[in-house]
Amino acid sequence: MALVSIPSSLRRLTLGVSKVTARGETVHEVFADLEAHYPGLREQICDKTGAVRRFARIFLDGEDIQSMQGFDTPLEDSAQISIVMAISGG
């Protein structure tokens, strides 16, 4: 089971919880499990094509999944996933 860190901007979808667990053998499966438990989370992170939005990054054990196999990246049992959303201001 993966431990997923939720950024403060998305915690409204997880009832304020900052770390949740999700099942899956790949990053894709973990995000499918997250969506089943926290509807709307995936659409905040991914666009309509399923790609990670340009202002979001997903890290697996400290490494950006884009430099790995993207959503197809396989997971170890003790995987730690961090969702990072860019903050903008003016």
TrEMBL record:
Kindly give the InterPro entries that the UniProt entry links to this protein: Beta-grasp_dom_sf, Mopterin_synth/thiamin_S_b, Sulfur_Carrier/Prot_Modifier, ThiS/MoaD-like
Q: Which Pfam families match?
A: ThiS
Keywords (alphabetical) are: Plasmid
Query: Does the UniProt entry include the keyword Zinc?
Result: no
Q: Which Gene3D superfamilies does the annotation name? A: 3.10.20.30
Please name the SUPFAM superfamilies in this protein's record: MoaD/ThiS
Q: Does the keyword Signal apply?
A: no
By what name is this protein known?
Answer: MoaD/ThiS family protein
Source organism of the structure = Piscinibacter gummiphilus
Source lineage: Bacteria, Pseudomonadati, Pseudomonadota, Betaproteobacteria, Burkholderiales
